[in-house]
Design brief:
The protein is mainly α and 490 residues long. It has four domains: 168 residues, Rossmann fold, CATH 3.40.50.620; 99 residues, Glutamyl-tRNA Synthetase, Domain 3 (Glutamyl-tRNA Synthetase, domain 3); 57 residues, no CATH class; 88 residues, Arc Repressor Mutant, subunit A. It is built from 19 helices and eleven strands. The strands form five sheets. A three-stranded antiparallel β-sheet has the order 3-4-7. α9 crosses α11 and α12 packs across α13. The structure holds glutamic acid. The site of glutamic acid has 7 residues, from loops.
Length: 490
């Protein structure tokens, strides 16, 4: 059993640089699940100190995506809490104060090197065969006079942390002990020339001052952990424990990327995925419970979640699996909810009018119910219904030549003409005894039921297979059936 510091306080600390990515959503979910399991507190913190990367509107987007997933935090920029502010741009005096303390302690210093000087140094190291060039520490030993000279010149400066020789061992709760030799680190910047903190300073200071006891975040931050531990040690602050969760790779086993993969939670939402399905799927990206079961409610996930079962190896995001899982959830939805969601998607695509007059609304509702009877079972996402409905509502289309050829025989044409008359004669297309009437008409024209159905389906939809005809008829409606049969008989 892994020992944690109590009380357990965990945080999710996204940078508002765009919409919520599935990787971020997975990190948020793991934090919320573990805190729920162990009775801990969750904190949401916006890390917005990189002005060049912050995107206006991202905070609102992140909050909306988290809410859609059902991930709630006990403290945060909107909820408030005793450890605020929860937005780093509102905590600047804290970081400046810490940087001043570190400087007074001799653990940090002002660096006046210009970008050109740094670049020259970097090139010289590369030329000398150094693989990962680092800052050589030139300003660490500046004389007071030189320092004042630079200040008088008005040279911009940053504050760097003075790294001592040695190594830092991160006792990671997922990876075990990971050693980092300080030799590769160089004196890293903690305060930028505009007075804003770097990520490492702000994250380390906030974790400590917000009494965070367990930091669970993506693997890519493991190399940042030594710097954060050094800052905390220099300040005499208690570090949290760390658990770095595995990377998420795409089907090609490369890092998921915005450019090549669907990664935004909002994109999955727009594609008709259900939040419960996405949460269930994300929980299995880098973690698995005991046993074979895969469908878990949020509460069941929270009851089963444990640090011990987080994987070390990267997880692979398999969209086909997610679609499969979403279908499981769609099938478990109450029928009225399924119809409501599909109705919304179809209306948004202008494929379902739900007009205000009762009669027409009842017609639209009945259409929707029939649509779900016909196609609901095959849908993997709500949005999958849109192209199907679009095909049903589309104006008549020319058939592919091979299909047109199939409808050319005299018997088939006579059969289709009879069905056309039959449809014109009935008063409603709902609940017709088609399974009796259509084979009878087929027999009158010397056709086998199977062949007749196939031809009829091609004439009506352009496909050889599909929904049962007794559902397809009312979905198409008399006018479209007439139009499509007439076209196929030309
Ligand atoms: N703001 C960082 C990010 O979005 C989070 C780093 C952390 O969790 O420490 O990647």
């Amino acid at each position: 059993m892994i020992e944690l510091i109590s009380p357990l306080r965990m945080r999710f600390a996204p940078s508002p640089t765009g919409s919520l990515h599935v990787g971020g959503a997975r990190t948020a979910l793991f934090n919320v699940l573990l805190a729920r399991r162990l009775g801990g507190t969750t904190v949401l913190r916006f890390e917005d100190t990189d002005e060049t990367r912050s995107v206006p509107g991202s905070e609102e987007g992140l909050l909306a995506d988290l809410a859609w997933l059902g991930l709630a935090f006990d403290e945060g920029p909107v909820t408030g809490g005793a450890y605020g502010p929860y937005r780093q741009s509102e905590r600047l005096p804290i970081y400046m104060d810490v940087a001043a303390r570190l400087t007074a302690l001799g653990r940090a210093y002002r660096c006046y090197c210009t970008p050109e000087e740094l670049e020259t140094e970097r090139r010289a190291q590369l030329a000398a065969g150094v693989k990962a060039p680092r800052y050589g520490g030139r300003c660490r030993t500046l004389e007071e006079g030189q320092r004042q000279g630079f200040e008088r010149e008005g040279r911009p400066s940053v504050v760097r942390f003075a790294v001592e020789p040695g190594e830092t061992v991160v006792h990671d709760l997922v990876h075990g002990d990971v050693r980092f030799d300080h030799h590769h680190l160089g004196d890293f910047v903690i305060l930028k020339s505009n007075g804003w903190p770097t990520y490492n300073l702000a994250a380390a200071v906030d974790d400590a001052t917000m009494d965070i006891t367990l930091v669970m975040r993506a693997d890519e931050h493991l190399p940042n952990t030594p710097a954060q531990l050094m800052i905390l040690a220099a300040l005499g602050l208690r570090p949290p424990r760390y658990a770095h969760v595995p990377l998420i790779l795409n089907a090609e086993h490369q890092k998921l990327s915005k450019r090549h993969n669907t990664v935004g939670v909002g994109e999955f939402r727009a594609q008709g995925f259900l939040p419960q399905a996405l949460v269930n799927y994300l929980a299995f990206l880098g973690w698995s419970p005991e046993g074979e079961r895969e469908i878990f409610t949020f509460e069941e996930l929270a009851a089963a979640f444990s640090l011990e079962r987080i994987h070390h190896a990267p997880a692979v995001f398999d969209e086909r699996r997610l679609r499969w899982m979403n279908r499981q959830y769609l099938q478990r939805l109450p029928r009225t909810e399924f119809e409501r969601l599909l109705g919304e998607a179809l209306s948004a695509a202008d494929l379902l009018d739900i007009p205000s007059s009762d009669g027409a609304a009842a017609g639209a509702q009945r259409w929707l119910t029939t649509f779900v009877d016909a196609f609901g079972d095959g849908l993997e996402t709500i949005a999958d219904g849109v192209p199907i409905a679009r095909e049903l509502c589309a104006p008549v289309q020319a058939l592919a030549p091979e299909q047109a050829q199939e409808l050319r025989g005299d018997a088939v044409r006579a059969y289709l003409a009879s069905v056309r008359r039959y449809v014109a004669d009935v008063s409603t297309l709902h609940d017709l005894p088609l399974s009796h009437d259509l084979p009878k008409i087929a027999a009158e024209h010397g056709l086998k039921k199977r062949d007749a159905y196939r031809s009829l389906r091609i004439a009506l939809t352009g496909h050889e297979h599909g929904a049962p005809l007794n559902l397809l008829f009312p979905l198409l409606g008399a006018a479209r059936i007439e139009e499509r049969l007439a076209a196929s008989l030309q």
